[in-house]
Design goal:
- This protein has 155 residues and is an alpha/beta fold.
- It has five helices and six strands, in the order E-H-H-E-E-E-E-E-H-H-H.
- A hairpin with a 7-residue loop joins strand 5 and strand 6.
- Helix 1 packs antiparallel against helix 2.
């Protein structure tokens, strides 16, 4: 595990998804993580992410949410991204609407705290309007992957 870029999975970048609820988005990302061998089982990881959401919603403004879960079913740290076709309300009772969702999966034993490093770097990078707009409008998985991969590199 060399750095933040190592956790970004091209197969976990889902663009143009016509979904409009947190549960649907999380289910699809978790299902995709299992298909790609990043987790051994969907339910415990989905529950971990939803429990984390129940504590503090992970919508951070700028049309972005960064849900994350820590579970023994996570084989290694990973980041998935889902781009919804339109903005939707992330958490009932909060007005944050989102379009880009970054799911971070972390093994129970996570000595590197890679997710915190990624959240920090991603949050800083997403303050850049140009970077954010490019991800919001991106239609090419390869380009989205390059953009996300650039997060870990020194600017």
């Amino acid at each position: 595990m060399n750095g933040v870029q190592d956790v970004i999975e091209k197969d976990m970048i889902l663009l143009g998804q016509d979904l409009a609820t947190k549960d649907d988005v999380l289910r699809l990302l978790v299902e995709t993580a299992e298909k790609n061998g990043l987790i051994t089982e969907q339910t415990p990881f989905l529950e971990a992410a939803l429990q984390r959401e129940a504590q503090v919603p992970t919508a951070i403004g700028y049309r972005i949410a960064i849900p994350h879960g820590k579970s023994e079913v996570v084989k290694r740290p990973f980041v998935g991204m889902l781009q919804a076709t339109s903005d939707f309300l992330w958490t009932e009772g909060h007005e944050e609407e989102v379009k880009l969702i970054f799911l971070i999966g972390v093994p129970q034993e996570n000595e590197h705290n890679i997710h915190l490093k990624f959240i920090s770097k991603l949050s800083k990078k997403l303050l850049d309007d140009e970077f954010r707009d490019e991800l919001v409008d991106c239609t090419d998985v390869e380009r989205a992957y390059e953009l996300l991969h650039s997060i870990g590199n020194p600017a």
